[in-house]
Amino acid sequence: MSRLRASLGERVSTDAETLAAHRRDTWVLSELDDLEGRSGPPPVAVVAAASTEDVSTALGLCRAARIPVVPYGGGSGVCGGIRVPEGAVVVSTRGIAGLVDLDAACLTASFGAGTLGIDAEQRVQQEGLTIGQWPQSIDLSTVGGWVATRAAGQFSTGYGNIEDVVLALEVVLPDGTVLRTRRTPRASTGPDLRQLFMGSEGTLGVVTQVTFSLRPLPEARRGRAYHFAHFQDGIEPLRRLLRDGWRPPVLRLYDAAESGRHFPDACPADRAMLIVLHEGAEGLVELESNAVAEICHACGGADADASAVDHWLRDRNKVPGFRGFLEKGIILDTIEVAATWDRVAALYERVTASLREVPGMLLASSHSSHSYRSGTNLYFTFVARPDDRARMAETYRESWRRVMETTLAVGGGIAHHHGIGRVRRDVLMQELGEAGVGVLRALKRALDPDGLLNPGVLLPDPSDAPRS
Length: 468
What we know:
alpha+beta, Uridine Diphospho-n-acetylenolpyruvylglucosamine Reductase, domain 2, Uridine Diphospho-n-acetylenolpyruvylglucosamine Reductase, domain 3, Alpha-Beta Plaits, 17 helices, 36% helix, globular, disordered C terminus
């Protein structure tokens, strides 16, 4: 610790308030632990890095002293990706923020990794441009966190996910070495090194700068909405319109339970609601809107009040925190998975049916919010109130177990955009197989042989734990 202070001075904090604020992310089980007096240990220090050099210095010193390091961005993760182990140092990237450079001709902009997503988006919009990455946490999450968790945004069907909008990265490796990938629209120089860090959740390096490939702000925008007799009936128009090459940025299909909750005035009772947002050149928006409407009508959809799209745009990021529910003895979460089109209906039916078997389950519902040529994601919500408050954590784990096991049995993928953290870690072997997990372990050993960077995350066993 003395070496950290000698090198980084006031950027090293050990006051109780700062330490407590960097213990964890917003994972439900961490919230529950806090509520029930089982808070985990705080870090021994927080390094408020102000530059890439600060991160490099901190990682180099901690590696020499065999001290675990947990990278910290906005702290908005929901899968337990941040849960500081005993004796660890947190390196916060929030001070590495702001625009580094912007080139409107090349449609590129670079930001410090600690820049909040909304700040980055608003800055490029001043130039008539957009990143197109709109996660629900855009006001809370950092652009570096988007990379680390392999995030998706609400406009992903048209604009793509984080891997589609990142042009280049700057990353500090566990030994303090700085890696900068080249800014080029495409390369064939071996495996794409950027991809090593997208979804690595702070286990292979600390992202310090992100360069985005931008788009012009759309010239026109139009919302349309449709309702279907059943959720399963709405899946086919999604498949057809994407197969035909249409790419509305927002394409969200809600089952009856969620439609009634979100759109009570626009969707008839017990119907599934599809909202569509078209963006782009005026003529293209008109053409796409008409083509999608034709497909929806042909699949049995009926027109709904398009104001539902405006309602969603206005309220889409207004989500209540977990604490108020937990205090009432209610345990809940959302779980996003994905599947190819031939498996989506079965996945929806089997997961919701299995969740409803959990004692105390109040709600098991789903919507699709990110779609592709070959399939879509399903975003499940469960809400339960066990008879005994002492069983809240047990109910939570049982609900997650059922979703993961059913998804694997159907042939889907266990994570679409929130990552692995700790909540999915123990089923990663079933998703990737021994060979896949073996590759991750080999990467971890090669880059972080002492297992010091964010230990306990991603890998499904303690093989990445710090070694003395």
